[in-house]
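ok posting inputs for the zinc ion job
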Amino acid sequence: MNNAHVTGSFKLMKSLNRTLVLNIIRKDGPISRAEIAKRTNLTPPTVTNIVNELFETGIIKESQMGQSSGGRKPILLTIEPTSHYVIGIDVGVHKVKVVLADLNASITNESITKIKKGITEAELLQLLIENVYTIVEQANVTKEKIVGIGVGMHGMVDHIHGVALYAPNLQLKNIPIKQTLEAEFSLPVTVENDAKALALGEKWFGYGADIENMVCINVGIGIGSGIILQNKLFHGKDGIAGEIGHTVIDENGPMCTCGNKGCLQTFSAGEAIRTRALEGINKGKPTAIVEIVKGNLDNVDGEAVFEAAKAGDAFAKEVLTESGKYLGMSIANLINVLNPELVVLSGGVSRAGEFLLQPIRAIVEERVLTPSAKDTTICLSKLGQQGTVIGAVTLVLAEMFVPDVNA
Ligand SMILES: [Zn+2]
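and the output
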């Protein structure tokens, strides 16, 4: 985060040793000064100095007394989550969500705005700016307490320069998000692909806490994933690592938004579920989906199919199983290639829960190479619909707390 717009307290925390100490307190707190020295290999006087500086920023506090091995009980240190705040932005296909969250990623304020069809780059950037102002006003938090803005943006993202390279559903290219927001708010801004942000959020605040290698798959209008290897987001050479939605299922399959045919996305994402449901309805398959949309077939979507499946509708279950089957194949491939400990599903389509998970697990069981890899945990995100925005908040927290986040 080498830019001129860094706030005072943020700059203070970025020194390597301070970050190291701060992260130990975050991860392992409540913790004593002596224990911090032991775990960081810093000398006790150095730890004391750093702790004193951190106290001045308000980011840590003394908490309860620890266990003593005789003599005076040590005073333990923890993070003060409401000492600072982060702004998180989730730029989806249809809406922008902006939140203010504390250092535990607990959301205190939220603002959601629809993205109109045919929005221009300037309008989109203006929309982000307006929503940030709205949140800051609502929250009644002083500017000094806000340490940064994290943005989870759908599509291809250059996370180094904070540019949205290509957002296929908005038909926009090269949007200078970081530059624009930093100029407006004089705060450090981190921009990341939404699925990658989501994976980081799941790692910090979801089921990934003690997991070194994991993949988080976002199944909604598109399908993307964030890969975490050895505790770090994996970007690959050009940042496209994780674009599982565009892996090929059938070379002669349906046309995809990327210009190729038969990508996973065209088999398992929301639109594929809708298409398959409509095909069945048009062929006269008996299904409760028609009733659920009150006969208006324009309203057939993943949600309606899920509602029908929940009510026991056999055809709706079949449609979701089909979607899960293809996802399962891709997840089995992924497990055979990366061998993660955990695969997390998120996004709108993942709300279908067991209707998707069952076929996914069955295919993985069938196709993954070793008994232990067959046992790879596959589950739904703990963060639910807030996953991406919590991920966006986590982008900033990672910059604050992890000494070598970009190493
Ligand atoms: Zn594709």
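notes: The pocket of zinc ion is lined by residues 246, 256, 258, 260, 263, 265 (CB under 6 Å). The two ends are 12 Å apart (CA to CA).
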